[in-house]
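Sanity check

After download, print the first record. It should look like this:
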Amino acid sequence: MAGTALTHQGDVQVGTDNAYLLCASSVHGFNPANYVRALQFNPWVWPDISSDDTAYWHRSGMKPGADIPTSRRIEFTIDINQPDAASLNAKLAQLAAATKPVFVAGVEQEVSFMFGSTKYVLYGRYREVDVIDTSLVGKYSVQVRVRFTATDPIIYEATPTVVTVPVWTGTLANWHINYASHISFLSGGASTAIDIGGDAPPRWAVTINGPARNPVLVNTTTAKWLWLAYPAGYTVASTLSVVVTWHNRDIRTGTGFSAGEYHAYPSHWFEMNNMPVTNKLVVAVDNSHTGSASMPGGTPVASSLAYQVGWWVMPS
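Expected structure tokens:
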């Protein structure tokens, strides 16, 4: 969970829970000799848009195309004022650790904040951290300009919601061929409705608990599915689990080891719906395999979905 240090409206946490600098709001009280503030912090700026507008022929204007949000750029100033040099150096060291440049693809950084009583987080990269005013360093005061590019432009609630996803076991012969009829059957009562708030798609991760052989995560509302069935078959043994994470297309064991990044054709990664469209989810396990592809022993255990509600604009 992001934003552990946040306690009051207006608080801003620069960095992840493992390395951060807390910029406390004035709700905490204000000591002019000892503070760290985030000035001009506005996370609700409109995201950058990539569009394919096309010009009309023989007239002025353009036909609006598909608008695709690509990123969200947050620029603000951190104002640090401390009682002594050691305290100032400690705050600057926290800021340096929280915003250390990352050069590895796929690794995200965070900035989180509190609005009302809810904690929110943006995922992306710190792209600029520059000292802009050193005139008061002798008085243990400094201002730093920060630019954060949210490579995922959706603003997420920091605290995940965890719900149960039922497991159905039975005969699902030739899933990759007969998936339409199987999904129709599963929508009848095997799946459970999960309503997710917000005005943007959520981030989600599903934990599939063993025993399960070639499990299929199905959203019967949209007839979309993700099939964990590699060429040699995929087994989640009893007492073990596998975590399927949507935003970075990652499949890992419950202990954190990669279980492979691929799934069986013709399934695909899919977004969960936010309201007003519901999600009817089920993890389907085909127990009709025999021999090396047989189900591991034990009773199937319900899976779980952890999701973070997403927002494009400020919640009312």
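If your output differs, re-run the checksum step. Summary of this record's structure: The chain has a mean pLDDT of 86.
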